[in-house]
Amino acid sequence: EVQLQASGGGLVHAGGSLRLSCVTSGFTFARTAMKWLRQAPGEGHERVSTINGDGTWSHTIDSVKDRFTISRDNGKNTLYLQMNNLKPEDSAVYYCGFNNIRGQGTLVTVSS
Asked: What is the per-residue pLDDT across 54-66, written as a single tens digit (0 to 9) for each?
């Protein structure tokens, strides 16, 4: 059974930082490209960042690429998203996933 458990969200002031983690199981993590998505209230899902299986390639959307960094630890089957200089518009539920699968999200709220 595939499991994707995101954590690390919370309430921070604008300019603050958070590190999201996604612990996975039930599939070959090291061979799987992974992504972080987010969904703000009343909005659709937005793919924030993607990383390939061995971590040698990644892509992050322009609106956050200077502030967010995706990474992974294949030995721990864990995906990360380091988020710095957070802005109120970053407030959303953040999910990790691959292909058409995503796990439970973690809520990030950034106050102005």
From this structure: 999 999 999 999 9
